[in-house]
């Protein structure tokens, strides 16, 4: 989370990511004032790139970790898809007020309540520094996690990935799939996939985005992956085996690099069941 540090009179802000219909991500400040909560700096670019017009309807789905998916409907109530780049709507100081109805007793509501007391920092650096100070990972631990992951076997199609910092710390968490695997087993269109962990019956919905243009480097998981990372306390150097158990459902086997992390994940699962 990020808070303005320029003046004590400045309203508190957080950096939020917005995923548009094309799967691309925009960044904006989420600002809390005495009159409400607003998307501020960065919103004008999102509005301009999507040619937003007055009286159009936007639905924001909160994915956790200050990440939103935005669905856009035009004046005729038809969903606008794959629009990227357009008019000059959304001036330099444009901002969007969010209705209170959008915030219930959930993670987002809790985050907003904390905005007036949070210290200046970012989630990425905070998480990375926390682990390096409390439980530095040794080469032996890395090797043990690697060996365990590479010994995984299944009759179902699967692939194994070692998590990098960009997979778990970035405010725009995305996971690239091995192209050979995804082209053989997954559809070549945007698809909702289900993620679940072998030791947990909870499921997560994520967006699979195939390579469709020159600017996309590889097929990837986008919306929903961030929530999966947070809820399962994933860290850099962990390994995940993605086992395709149904046409659009993955059973994910996690091989953790840190024993401290294993205990934290175990506590999180117990709290979720309580």
TrEMBL record:
Biased composition (Polar residues): 1-16
Main location per the UniProt record: nucleus
One Gene Ontology cellular component: nucleus
GO molecular function, one term: DNA binding
Localization in the cell: Nucleus
Keyword annotations from UniProtKB, A to Z: DNA-binding, Nucleus, Transcription, Transcription regulation
Region entry Disordered, spans: 1-22, 115-141
Domain TF-B3: 1-76, 160-258
InterPro entries: B3_DNA-bd, DNA-bd_pseudobarrel_sf, REM16-like
Pfam families: B3
SUPFAM superfamilies documented for this protein: DNA-binding pseudobarrel domain
Bias (Basic and acidic residues) ranges: 129-141
Protein name (Swiss-Prot/TrEMBL): B3 domain-containing protein
Species in which this protein is naturally found: Carex littledalei
